[in-house]
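Anyone able to model this chain together with 5'-deoxyadenosine?
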Amino acid sequence: MYNEMDLDKIDINAEPPTEEPARQYYFMAKCREWVREFEKKNGRRPTACTQTFGCQMNARDSEKLSGILSLCGFAETTEEEADFVIYNTCTVRENANSRVYGRLGYLHNLKKKNPDMRIALCGCMMQEPAVVEKLKKSYRFVNLVFGTHNIYKFAELLVQSFETDHMVVDVWDRAEQIVEELPVERKYPFKSGVNIMFGCNNFCSYCIVPYVRGREKSREPKDILREIERLSKDGVVEIMLLGQNVNSYGKTFEPPVTFAQLLQEVEKIDGIERIRFMTSHPKDLSEELITVMAHSKKICRHLHLPLQSGSTRILQAMNRHYSKEMYLELVEKVRNAMPDIAITTDIIVGFPGETEEDFLETMEVVERVGFDSAFTFIYSRRRGTPAADMQEQVPEEIVKDRFDRLLKKVQEIAAQKSEKLTGSVQKVLVESINDHDTSLVTGKMDNNSTVHLPGDARLIGRMVMVRLEECRGFYYYGKLAESR
Ligand code: 5AD
Ligand code: SF4
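re: yes, here you go
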């Protein structure tokens, strides 16, 4: 594996290579020198803390940051009282930004106590010019700022920032290339995310993602398959294929490759027992995909299908390219092919111009579909998106009231749905010791529901059969039925 690459063989006195990823390994070797100097001076390795905000894509990116830091010799820690702290930020809603500014205040205090501490910021929020301006003006104690398109250059930027006391800022407005074969340090040994595409071309009118993550770019199938084969050899049994809109995977290849075709290839890889994917856009979900899912032994019976709104008028204003009826038909098709599938969704309330009637249509769709669970969001006005300039922003109290009503309905329905599985035996991948009760372990079912059961660390990473004994709304308590 590249994680084990011998950095000491790299001549750091030579000129840096121009080719990637060799260039980055050169800088990792340089960074390792810096780490050794630190060790000599302080009698211990420097510590590094990577904090992730936001989605699964960011979580995967953070594993890449951690891979580089650990190959360079940093000791990873979850404590922010570290020698190096990096925040991988999100900007999808305004409160994500506010959290980062709040936490930066706390880091500033830590840095006052430890002036050698170094702070870096990366991720989606850094792609917003106004954010970078604010950091330059009011957060001078930050050492390094970079964006989503040059994350592969982390090692190089790290070395650059070690060589100066000034803030190093490197944010690109588009992706130049996808760099393969960089180190990764996975959070879980038995499951992993796998990027299949980057960026988004949909420009939903409320969403900042296309501006901060750039245009859609698919990874080559051979690179994806090779990565999954390696993960499988390394003990991974569950993978999550990641993209903002996985259903439009491979459209730009010549000849095109469909997402369903990719899934069929992934299915053939020995050792992988579960395949998940995220996120599907309803407008691009094909019959081919439904058929492939229905015939698959490995693809989980779970579909995350963001609805956003149940009103066709609002969906149009959101630039979603489907109507309420199209969404309902799609759900019916999926359920006809896979009656036991769990369908989950994202819903936004308070989009500009949303009337009580529009909102009631969302409530109606929620009821008719019967989502197994739903993430509900209050519309957040994102600068630079078309919706931010729309008239008729909905007053806060009205949005709050609708949000509460929606959440209540979503929870009621999810609880009814979950209750139906009580008493059944389900396959569960055990992921961790329970956070609150160490006599229990916590795992996930095929349909993504959480189960707690008696057990210890030996069960972690194992696929076991569990009888669901009690349903507590959106999670279960169970007992081992038999193990495999
Ligand atoms: N305001 C509220 N929610 C948003 N989302 C994306 N942009 C916004 C916004 N401006 C939600 C969508 C998307 C999920 C990841 O975040 O529901 O599916
Ligand atoms: Fe945002 Fe729409 Fe792209 Fe999802 S599909 S990332 S909601 S623009």
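The pocket of 5'-deoxyadenosine (ligand 1) is lined by residues 92-93, 206-207, 306, 308, 346, 348, 377, 379-380, 382 (CB under 6 Å).
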